[in-house]
Amino acid sequence: MALTTLDAKTALVVIDLQRGIVGLPTAPHPSNEIVERSAVLLDAFRRHGLPVVLVNVAAGAPGRTDQGAHTGEFPAEFVQLVPELKQQPSDHLVTKRTWGAFTNTDLAAWLHQQGVTQVVLVGIATSIGVESTARFASEHGFNVTLVTDAMTDLNADAHVNSITRIFPRLGETGTVQQVLDLLEKTRA
């Protein structure tokens, strides 16, 4: 489904654009492009007085996986948001310890307190933090928009799978330019 509209109270949610994640090799898009595109959206949402949520991950969820068990917190430098996001006092910071930004955080309550009915998601990694957050946003009743040219993954196949098979079931997909055009059209 193509992007059709932005609700009157739409929030931008930026997933894991932090030093440790942005420094990893990504595909199909390099991290610096995702940071640049996300920064453009951040500027637009702030200019229109819409809520901005910056999400970082400080630890992995406990438990064993085929890739090993995670223990402990990530180093402080790994968790720091990249400076290109230009974090503002009005931005809501969510620090997560699982893949998704809703699990064991105040995100759902904060969005509801702000009157938000739609979330626009960007970030890294498409199939991990972005997809998990999108799933829970949908389950919490938010309209979900996924900005496919402002996200990338650690694995190109996983990225394509999320965008082509999963995201159309969770919300609408669009590009940075489509979101910007809708912001200008609906808030002029």
UniProtKB/TrEMBL annotation:
CDD domains: cysteine_hydrolases (cd00431). The keyword Hydrolase applies. Keywords: Hydrolase. Residues 10-178 form the Isochorismatase-like domain. It comes from Paraburkholderia sejongensis. The keyword Nuclease does not apply. PANTHER family: ISOCHORISMATASE FAMILY PROTEIN YECD (PTHR43540:SF7), PEROXYUREIDOACRYLATE/UREIDOACRYLATE AMIDOHYDROLASE-RELATED (PTHR43540). Pfam families: Isochorismatase. This is Isochorismatase family protein. InterPro entries: Isochorismatase-like_dom, Isochorismatase-like_hydrls, Isochorismatase-like_sf.
